[in-house]
Design a protein that fits this description.
mainly alpha
Length: 436
């Protein structure tokens, strides 16, 4: 079977199964089984799939995925993050678009603790959206910052998908986790600048409000009590990575233990909440591990069929520069992000993009950060961005989907600007990992 046909059948079959509603893990395994049977030699191909699955799942580098997810779930279920948002609101004063700015600050803090874009968006939406709408904020001014800051959890550690990208693409997991910090902080800063600019340009979008009189200690006390301890948790996780004291797995374990201790400190953790956090962690982790189980065989099918080498030779025939190749990858990832979920984007493209990037001499860390940023943008791009539907679910019934789309578009542009900056000035992503 010629390699173009194998490539078309593998990718096309996966697309068809996803379109008919089959869960991504099952769709990926089904296509991989058929490909292994046809290309790798019938029963021997299926045996190879079983061996690869066993070796992939037994990889100790994957341990941070459930641990980071557990850390975020504990903080979410114990509602520690909700109190932190209230504390941030007290200290942000006298700034145009105050509550929208609070959303960016609070969302970035929780993103640095949870690693879950869905949990981040849902928490911010349920906590801050009703307040902003009640105080006269325009729906676009209220919902846009929630979705923009919610998506930052994809990029800033602890991000379970960063661990997944690193393990699938053969990129240093510690380096990739750290590489997302500066782009994520830059994104938050740009969002704040945009909000302030819009609020000054059109004050009706974010009406100013009288704030209750408070002493300096009354204003800052909740911040000291509910935010600084959580910041210490982030410092422990990332500081242990930067200093070389801990591996990604050990830092994730420290984060999970720290989340439990924080819950105990605030007397908000109960047995039922802990069980719920563990069960949610199991659900997400099993889905990701199912996909990883088939990933190596999927790549082998493409390699043995000649699809990977053939595609590289075709692209090399056009004599493209590494920058042009990277821009082509970005264009395809952004297009896929409009229609399929982030894990599917990885499964479809990693077996092709990684060998192509290696052949072109593209820095693996830059490729990894490009993946994270394009997946983050994919969460927000119409028509099927996941966070758009999360936002619609927590918004009042009278707010339509077109308003949700309009809310997020300026922030998509800002994220595209950061993506362009990473491509044009790589030290933005590579400088901090260079300190490891």
């Amino acid at each position: 079977m010629e390699w173009p046909l194998v490539l078309a059948l593998m990718l096309g079959g996966l697309g068809v199964l996803l379109l008919i509603g089959l869960p991504v893990a099952f769709a990926f395994i089904a296509v991989t089984m058929l490909g292994a049977f046809e290309v790798l030699g019938g029963e021997r191909g299926l045996m190879q799939l079983a061996r690869n699955a066993s070796l992939s799942i037994a990889n100790f580098q994957l341990a941070p995925i459930p641990l980071f997810i557990l850390m975020g779930e504990i903080l979410f279920q114990t509602r520690v993050a909700h109190r932190a948002i209230d504390a941030v609101e007290r200290v942000v004063t006298r700034i145009p678009g105050r509550l929208s700015v609070v959303t960016i600050f609070g969302g970035t803090i929780f993103a640095a603790l949870s690693g879950s874009t869905i949990a981040n968006t849902a928490m911010l939406g349920s906590t801050l959206l009703p307040t902003m709408l009640k105080k006269g904020y325009a729906p676009t001014m209220a919902m846009g910052p929630i979705m923009a800051s919610g998506a930052i959890a994809m990029l800033i550690p602890p991000s379970a998908l960063a661990v997944l990208v690193g393990s699938l693409a053969g990129i240093s997991i510690a380096g990739l986790l750290v590489a997302g910090i500066l782009p994520a902080l830059l994104l938050s800063a740009l969002c704040v600048v945009w909000i302030v600019f819009r609020a000054i340009q059109n004050p009706a979008l974010a009406p100013s409000e009288p704030l209750p009189a408070m002493t300096l200690w009354d204003r800052w006390r909740p911040f000291c009590v509910h935010v600084l301890p959580l910041s210490l948790l982030f410092v422990i996780v990332i500081g242990s990575l930067l200093s070389g004291i801990a591996t990604p797995t050990e830092s994730a374990a420290l984060g999970s233990l720290g989340a439990v201790l924080v819950g105990l400190l605030y007397r908000s953790i109960t047995w039922d909440r802990l069980v719920t956090a563990v069960m949610e962690t199991v659900k997400l982790s099993v889905m990701i591990l199912f996909i990883i189980a088939a990933s190596q065989t999927f790549a082998q099918v493409l390699s043995f069929s000649g699809a990977t080498g053939g595609l590289i030779r075709v692209i090399e025939g056009y004599d493209l520069s590494p920058l042009q190749i990277l821009l082509g990858m970005i264009a395809l990832l952004l297009l896929l992000g409009c229609f399929i979920d982030q894990v599917s984007m990885l499964m479809v493209t990693v077996p092709i993009f990684v060998p192509l990037a290696n052949a072109a001499g593209i820095d693996p860390l830059i490729l990894g950060v490009v993946y994270l940023l394009t997946m983050e943008i994919g969460l927000l791009t119409p028509p099927f961005g996941l966070l758009l539907f999360v936002m619609r679910g927590v918004a009042p019934p009278h707010i339509g989907m077109m308003t949700v789309y309009a809310s997020v578009l300026p922030y998509v542009v800002l994220k595209l600007a950061v993506l362009a900056l990473v491509v044009l000035w790589p030290p933005l992503a590579t400088w901090l990992p260079g300190l490891l």
